[in-house]
Amino acid sequence: MSENHELPAGKRKLIDAALRLTAGGRSFASLGLRELAREAGLNPNTFYRHFDTLDELAREAVESVSRRLRPMLRRERWLAAHDDAHSVPRRACAAFFAFALENREAFVSALAEYHGTSPVLREAVRANLHDVSAEMADDVVQLEWMPTLARETVDEVCTQIVLQLFHLSAEYLDANAARQQALIAYAERFIVRLFAGSVLLAQQEPGRAAAPMRG
């Protein structure tokens, strides 16, 4: 994934229009070019100045959200780690769900495409979730949260965490305030238990533990 950047106005309008049209559960593949241009307030020919296909637009829509989500999560993890390491899981979960709420249309579309009919879009969503989990794993290692775990295990745990948060966001988006807080608490417990269980398994399987550091 590339770093965050401003999209050209026409491209942004087309992406926003596509997200509005798919927020009700429609797939990107079902969108018509004229329908999309009309929703964006643009001439249909404008589409081809920015995209070659609807799949390309959908990929850019997913990536544009990821470019904003990832640095926000990383910043929240590091700030929480310096304030109180025990607060990291809860603050990271709260930040993830708050971002989902602020970007409801994008998350609804991504949730639909995750199991959608387009292989290109399924892979785009999965690839961006992988980027989120890879950066989370980097932070776990750099901040030395789980020094006894092998990097392979950290990667696996972070992948499971990100997928769980992603799927929980579907319920979070339509939940009332009390249920939203309950989901944040549940996600926090999920993370803590997953890492705690991984540490216990690593102790029982020495070959899976991180190699000791040499002085």
UniProtKB/TrEMBL annotation:
The answer on whether this UniProt entry bears the keyword Chloroplast reads no
Listed A to Z, the keywords are: DNA-binding
Q: Name one GO molecular function term.
A: DNA binding
Look up the DNA-binding region in the UniProt entry and give its residue ranges.
32-51
Where the record annotates domain HTH tetR-type, the positions are 8-69
Matching entries from PROSITE patterns are given as: HTH_TETR_2
Segments passing through the bilayer: none
- InterPro entries with a match to the protein in the record: Homeodomain-like_sf, HTH_TetR, HTH_transcr_repressor_FabR
Q: Which PANTHER family match?
A: HTH-TYPE TRANSCRIPTIONAL REPRESSOR FABR (PTHR47752)
- Spell out the protein name for this chain: Transcriptional regulator, TetR family
Q: What is the protein's species of origin?
A: Paraburkholderia terricola
Lineage runs:
Bacteria, Pseudomonadati, Pseudomonadota, Betaproteobacteria, Burkholderiales
